[in-house]
From TrEMBL:
Protein name: Uncharacterized membrane protein
Transmembrane segments: 81-102, 108-131, 138-164
Keywords: Membrane, Transmembrane, Transmembrane helix
Domain of life the protein comes from: Bacteria
Length: 188
């Protein structure tokens, strides 16, 4: 009995098309390598052992397929679909508020940074004017201007980070809405 015949007999239990694919693969492998039956036993091992490994690999792949199919979402029932439609004013309002909240964070951050710059400009001007009348009062206002400039410089990277994060959050929210809308529209 040849190596391929023994392998074919040991593959019983696998689907017929899978058996044919495996035998065809090893037929080509042996032909390309110019291996005899004895050389195939040395290189590949006993046909029964090889068949057990191939069966185990097939079972694992088949199990992954079953797991993937089990993870797929269940379709919405008519009642769930009607519930989604009836509650749409609420979840549309929540979505709109979420978008506005995310969009307002970077605007708020840049507004604070800009207001600190404006405060520093006015404090600096006020300090220069007051300095001629009251030395310590003028120094106070000039110190406030320097502190405000420093805070705006420190706050600008935070504002930039918030803009980038708001973009990521908006993208995530849009993807979630898109996924949910597809499920609802397809009655999945």
């Amino acid at each position: 009995m040849t190596y391929l015949n023994e392998l074919e007999q040991a593959l019983v239990g696998l689907p017929k098309n899978e058996q044919e694919n495996i035998i065809e693969y090893y037929r080509n492998y042996l032909a390309d390598g110019g291996l005899s039956d004895e050389e195939a036993r040395v290189k590949l091992g006993e046909p029964a052992v090889l068949a057990e490994k191939l069966k185990a690999d097939f079972d694992q792949e088949d199990g992954d397929e079953v797991t993937t199919r089990a993870k797929q979402t269940q379709p919405l029932t008519r009642g769930q679909f009607i519930l989604v439609i009836l509650t749409s004013p609420i979840w549309l309002l929540v979505t709109l508020i979420s978008f506005l909240g995310i969009a307002s964070l970077p605007l708020l951050a840049w507004g604070i940074a800009l207001s600190l710059i404006i405060v520093s400009a006015f404090s600096g001007i006020a300090g220069a004017v007051v300095l001629t009348q009251n030395f310590w009062g003028g120094l106070f206002y000039i110190g406030m201007a320097v502190i405000s400039i420093g805070l705006s410089i420190m706050f600008s990277p935070c504002a930039t980070w918030l803009v980038m994060k708001a973009t990521d959050w908006t993208k995530a929210l849009l993807l979630k809405i898109q996924h949910t809308a597809r499920r609802v529209m397809n009655h999945e």
